[in-house]
């Protein structure tokens, strides 16, 4: 049998397993096929991308969301007076993360803006070519281990073959470990915290054979707000962004305006000099927001995708009932320039990562699975330029 025939046969087997055994077994079959295909190539090149149809079905398979959950999946929220989007007042401590087979190590990066530590997950199942990279920005009171455990992103990285970078915000930069998305000095390229995150991202790309066309940024709450800053300020570095329960870039210029934006104030693009229209989007974005979020008002999700809806944008929406989890409405938007966005309104969900694990804080195990859906969206949107 020819190699291409063998590879296609493996893909058919994976699809059969998806229907009969489940998504994890299907993923393992796909990864075996990719490794066998890569080992047969004499001159290694970029890793063969997983077929788009398989990725779509694998990561949106309804059975993947049917995990055990209780009625306490969404924890009570509060907004701290001193730090935006702080953690819930009565959040239980996270349990230790499961050990993954890859390498999860801590390093530090420094430039003129200061020093930040970060953790990096490299999967054990390396491919023949460059890997994608996902930069994950934690929310207030969280850290890299907590965020990795809650989002299960390292588990997805091991299954699908990508690296994960977790920048760490220390308490000496913000008492609640929030990214300072609301300060003008931390909203610009080559300044402040954006320069630190971009710098460590470039360092990881250079040191670990990352595919520079497939570098993505995602975050929760204050981390989501900083991800919105990064995708706007560094479109040449990041191919797409995933923002969960966050705010748009430039929606605040100090702590009082940040708290106002979190409460649903309409100051999009507000600065000390007055209001400004949001910049036209240049990179794809996927947004998740619970419509019962009492920490960051749900209107902030709509504002994140509003720039995509200008002009003759193509739009459609569909409400879907989850077999196990929250119902949700998914909006798909494509700008006249062909830039895609998705906006998931999760009905009845609060300020928590959808489909997350109770091993981390700020999680709602009921789903939909935000991590898997972000990966689906990311893998479909490599940077073309």
How would you describe this structure in keywords?
29% helix, Rossmann fold, 10 helices, 385 residues, globular, two-stranded parallel sheet, ten-stranded mixed beta sheet, 20% strand, alpha/beta, 12 strands, single chain
Fold and architecture overview:
Helix content is 29%, strand content 20%. The relative contact order is 0.14. The model is unreliable at 17-24, 37-97 and 267-276 (pLDDT under 50). Helix 1 runs antiparallel to helix 2. Strand 8 (314-320) and strand 9 (328-334) form a beta hairpin. Strands 1-2-4-3-5-6-7-10-9-8 form a ten-stranded mixed β-sheet, sandwiched between helices. The longest helix has 18 residues, at 3-20. The chain has one domain (73-379): Alpha/Beta hydrolase fold, catalytic domain (Rossmann fold, 3-Layer(aba) Sandwich). With 385 residues, the chain is an alpha/beta fold.
List the helices and strands and how they pair.
Blueprint: H1 3-20, H2 23-39, H3 52-60, E1 103-111, E2 114-122, E3 131-137, H4 144-151, H5 153-160, E4 163-167, H6 192-207, E5 210-220, H7 222-233, E6 240-244, H8 255-262, E7 285-290, H9 299-305, E8 314-320, E9 328-334, E10 340-346, E11 353-354, E12 363-364, H10 370-379
Parallel strand pairs: 3-4, 3-5, 5-6, 6-7, 7-10, 11-12
Antiparallel strand pairs: 1-2, 2-4, 8-9, 9-10
Helix pairs in contact: 1-2, 3-10
């Amino acid at each position: 049998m020819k190699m291409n025939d063998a590879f296609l046969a493996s893909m058919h087997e994976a699809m059969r397993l998806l229907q009969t055994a489940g998504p994890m077994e299907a993923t393992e079959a796909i990864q075996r096929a990719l490794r066998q295909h890569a080992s047969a190539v004499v001159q290694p090149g970029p890793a063969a991308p997983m077929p788009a149809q398989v990725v779509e079905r694998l990561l949106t398979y309804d059975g993947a969301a049917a995990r055990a959950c209780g009625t306490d999946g969404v924890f009570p929220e509060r907004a701290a007076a001193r730090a935006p989007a702080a953690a819930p007042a009565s959040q239980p401590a996270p349990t230790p993360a499961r050990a993954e087979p890859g390498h999860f190590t801590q390093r530090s990066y420094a430039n003129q803006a200061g020093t930040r530590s970060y953790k990096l997950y490299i999967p054990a199942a390396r491919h023949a070519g460059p890997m994608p990279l996902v930069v994950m920005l934690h929310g207030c009171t969280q850290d890299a281990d907590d965020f990795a455990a809650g989002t299960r992103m390292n588990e997805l990285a091991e299954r699908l073959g990508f690296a994960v970078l977790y920048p760490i915000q220390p308490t000496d930069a913000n008492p609640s470990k929030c990214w300072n998305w609301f300060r003008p000095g931390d909203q610009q390229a080559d300044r402040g915290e954006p320069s630190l995150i971009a710098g460590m991202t470039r360092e990881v790309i250079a040191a670990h054979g990352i595919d520079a066309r497939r570098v993505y940024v995602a975050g929760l709450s204050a981390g989501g707000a900083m991800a919105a800053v990064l995708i706007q300020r560094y479109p040449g570095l990041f191919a797409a962004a995933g923002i969960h329960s966050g705010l748009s870039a430039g929606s605040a210029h100090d702590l009082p305006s940040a708290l106002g934006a979190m409460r649903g104030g309409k100051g999009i693009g507000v600065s000390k000099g007055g209001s400004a229209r949001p910049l036209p989007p240049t990179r794809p974005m996927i947004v998740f927001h619970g419509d019962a979020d009492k920490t960051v008002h749900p209107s902030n999700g709509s504002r994140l995708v509003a720039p995509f809806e200008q002009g003759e944008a193509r739009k459609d929406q569909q409400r879907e009932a989850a077999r196990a989890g929250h119902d949700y409405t998914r909006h798909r938007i494509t700008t006249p320039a062909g830039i895609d966005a998705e906006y998931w309104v999760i009905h009845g969900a609060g300020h928590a990562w959808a489909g997350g694990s109770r091993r981390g804080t700020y999680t709602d195990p009921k789903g939909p699975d935000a991590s898997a859906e972000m990966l689906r969206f990311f893998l479909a949107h490599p940077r073309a330029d």
